[in-house]
Amino acid sequence: MLTRKQLELLTFIRDRLEADGIPPSFDEMKEALDLRSKSGIHRLITALEERGFIRRLAHRARALEIIRLPEAVEKRAASAGITAKAPAPAPEQAPAAAAKDPAFTPRVIEGDRREAPQADPVYALELPVMGRIAAGVPIEAISEASHNIAVPGAMLSGRGNHYALEVKGDSMIEAGINDGDIVVIREQDVVDNGDIVVALIEEQEATLKRYRRRGTMIALEAANPEYETRVFPESRVRIQGRLVGLIRSY
Hints:
Blueprint: H1 4-20, H2 26-32, H3 38-50, E1 54-56, E2 64-66, H4 71-79, H5 93-100, E3 124-134, E4 139-140, E5 147-152, E6 162-168, E7 182-186, E8 196-201, E9 205-214, E10 217-221, E11 230-233, E12 237-247
Helix pairs in contact: 1-3, 2-3
Enzyme class: hydrolase
Keywords: Autocatalytic cleavage, DNA damage, DNA repair, DNA replication, DNA-binding, Hydrolase, Repressor, SOS response, Transcription, Transcription regulation
EC number: 3.4.21.88
């Protein structure tokens, strides 16, 4: 059984998929359910996923897929004509139909089945995993590769060097980055406000945060209300790359 908020969220996602073909953003879900924080949306989505109603798809923005709907939502959708389909006849009805009409003969029409489209080939590249990066209290920077990981080529952002890091902590959870995730980073020292970056603080501590420049000051913002924004003079912060992808294992 779903809670009222879980049911509201599932219905809202279903309606947006029907109308637009893509799921709503976390901000849209937060506003639709009148919640104060996106962390509440994360908890509701996790609960729906654990109960088998939705599935999160890796490496895609707004990657939500509805697997099934509770009976109440199905009935509401059917009454609105969204998923209304004529029910298939029960197996025991077929002989009765044949008995009433002796001339009835099932006919199979050839060629009405479409072949499944062939998927495009996917190539992967090996990237070095350069240790752990803090998404919480900064940890000591690690600059030596511990192992390699295969990364889909489509995840890499243009030209330039890329590397991977294992996330430690939960300060970026509202950006969809969880403890234990692997983040793919493109090496660059020039970034835009709002980018999620790897920042090296005083050449000793590395952290994964959202970047904001305020004059000569650099603000490193968490995506979790339990963590404060940290502000440093630009001379104390060196940007080592920008987030371009994420890999999660279940």
